[in-house]
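User: Hey, quick favor. My workstation is busy. Could you predict this chain's structure for me?
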Amino acid sequence: MSHNSSGPNTAYAGVADAVRELGTAPDTHGPTLNTAVSSEAVEFIGRSLAEALRPHDATTVVFWNTSDEAVLGHVVARELGAAVVRADEVEGVVALSADIPAGARVALLATAWTNPMRLQALVTMARLVRVEIVAVASVLASPERPEGDLPLVALLAADGPTADPAVHPEAGSGGA
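Assistant: No problem, here it is.
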């Protein structure tokens, strides 16, 4: 399947197609894309998310350390020219894979933010190391919102023309 687009509106329709091609799977930290299905789809989604994040000027991308989120996170970071930092949680303790440099502009990334504790843990960790969170980004619109007024960036809405019940089960549940 080709994921080319000719304009800003078709890019988002292309993202929905790419997400449908990959599908999602449950994970400890929330749903993730099945990145092993298609590298082309992952690249398309990652580039699209990077473009949506570009105005926020992120210098570091932070995500939970799962294989599928790592694949997506690395594509986004590469496209932004940003550093990658993975987060792990063991027995309630959150650790980062690398130090985040002072002055870093951090984008928190997930396929979807569905677990409030996971999102808040990363927000708290970023604040503890005194970096600026410039965006909370996701592929799918997320029910969880961080405390405060952090900018949210989501490629696909939970409702509206880009929603797809096969990708985002709560989307499109109403009648026409």
